[in-house]
Amino acid sequence: MRAVIIEEYGGKEKLKEAEVPMPKPSAHQVVVKEKATSINPIDWKLREGYLQKMMPWEFPIILGWDVAGDIVEVGSEVTDWKVGDKVFARPDTTRFGTYAEYTAVDDKLLAYIPENVSYEEAAAVPLAGLTAWQALFDYGKLIEGEKVLIHAGSGGVGTYAIQLAKSRGAYVISTASEKNRELLLSLGVDQFIDYKNEDFTEILSDVDVIFDTMGGEVLENSFKVIKPHTGRIISVVGNIDKELVEKVDVTFNNIWLEPNGKQLTELAQLMEQGKVKSIIGATYPLNEKGIYDAHAMSETHHAVGKIVIKVED
After folding, report:
1. Cβ 58 vs Cβ 92: under 8 Å
2. Would you give per-residue pLDDT tens digits along the chain (313 residues)?
3. Less CB within 10 Å around the terminal CB: N or C of the chain?
């Protein structure tokens, strides 16, 4: 089958199209014929070699950890899924990723694609949507009526986080650049902050939950506006000095996504109900140039919503 692989760490020029063996499902796996996948920052961070200690894999590596498509083969112990099912998933993080025509996925990680959702819209969701879900609900314990600040709301994770927070009845505050104001308001943001011209530390106070996707100063300054004693800060990019956490007396978690088919199914239900939608900022084909261009866009940190890869027959 056709795939885009890397055979060594480095820049975007290391991405290359290749023929690789078809995946074979284990007892509790299915093989999905891919219709779409999507780009996440972990893809190019891994390509550059930043994660090689955490994931000491052999080459070649197929990057990509989002998939939407049709099941074409099921493992011997699979009972809940059949050939022909339209599914999407955030597969386990292995060196056999989703920049390929076919991929194997554990059956417990799958969710059905709703009828009113396209393959591209579904492929955008898993990694970013589950990250937002786990940050806000598993760690943030966000409940109705609470104030939540979502940094970088126009990004892939941010657009889902805004919609998920609104689905729980929270008061949603988000930072982004002025050009994305209308998009964020349309997703349900109650209070928009133009980060280039406004300082959120001068505007906000007593925020119940803060979701950080930026790290650095943004994360550090978040401790100035969190509600003392009961506030929760969740970051997906940075750790923080324990002394600061103890001084402000709040809960802080730096999280790493856990693939989860049940949560993805709940996300699918919200999409079916029209409460969550994918914002797709750009679409590229599955080939060497397409993935190269998609990585280039993701690396700017200014992509709006998700970058999707279409897998043509």
Report:
1. no
2. 999 999 999 999 999 999 999 999 999 999 999 999 999 999 999 999 999 999 999 999 999 999 999 999 999 999 999 999 999 999 999 999 999 999 999 999 999 999 999 999 999 999 999 999 999 999 999 999 999 999 999 999 999 999 999 999 999 999 999 999 999 999 999 999 999 999 999 999 999 999 999 999 999 999 999 999 999 999 999 889 999 999 999 999 999 999 999 999 999 999 999 999 999 999 999 999 999 999 999 999 889 999 999 998 7
3. C
**In angstroms, how far is CA 175 from the centroid of its own chain?**
18
- DSSP per-residue string spanning 173-202: EEEE-GGGHHHHHHHT-SEEEETTT--HHH
Q: How far apart are CA 313 and CA 45, in angstroms?
A: 28
The DSSP annotation for 99-126 comes to SBSEEEEEGGGEEEPPTTS-HHHHHHSH
* Cis before 228 (ω within 30): no
The helix or strand, by DSSP H or E, that contains position 267, with its residue range, turns out to be: helix 261-272
* Short-list 232, 252, 233, 255, CA closest to 242: 252
Distance CA 220, CA 252 (A): 11
Q: What is this structure's pTM? A: 0.97
How many whole angstroms separate alpha carbon 93 and alpha carbon 230?
34
